[in-house]
# Entry
Amino acid sequence: MVKLIVTDMDGTLLNDKKELPEKTFAIINQLQKRGITFAVASGREYQSLLQIYKEIADDIIIVADNGARIANKGKITFYDTFAPANIKEIVMAVNQIPSLKIVICGLKSTYMFEDDLMPGMAEHLVSSYFPQRVLIKNLSELPADDEVIKFAIFDPNQQAQKNIYEKVKHLHHKYQLAVSGAEWMDIMNLGVNKGVAVKKIQQSLGIGAKETMVFGDAQNDYEMMQQAYYSYAMANAVAEIKAVANFTAPSNEANGVIQILENFLTKHDADV
# Structure
């Protein structure tokens, strides 16, 4: 009996226009009526997800920033922060790579260097991923009353695996590196990922992998796939996710998550 359902956002639940399927909230409501917990797990930062789920944020679990922050029914229950020395080390490493832009994700706001702005980028970031963006000139302007939980590295050439990961992978022994799409790679503290976050949720609910269903498409979903027996790789997923998942769902453009959940609800009601 499935008791927890977790889905990624971009490339999974959202279509390529970054839109939720029309039936999403109705499906979540049906799951909740049957005592099934719904969670979203994304590389997006918390405020971005809160905007999307503001109508039902108090009824679901939100795993934001690739597992660096968890909110259960509107209450932050977990977050992981960087030490100041590590913040400086990461920024210096990324700044050595031409064309890359860095977003510093804090608990209260997200921060970008003024020199990193480029035509069109501000609108892209503000409108979708980072609604609370603050411009800074250098690291000394990071507010003392905020804490950094993640770095999001942006590649305007949309070759994150090649242009970001391959050039900073020497840091993998010290930090968690997660490619989350064509444009983005995230850096968290070692041991912070969606899989660990899902395990924390499972422990809080007293359930295991055989009672968990997850959906994903990108490399940052890899650990999450391993936390559930009912692990679904989207038809549009990268090869690594298809290899580790136990099942396949139709693509995000075909509303694959919703299709699987509708079939699941029909079968669930027939078995009750």
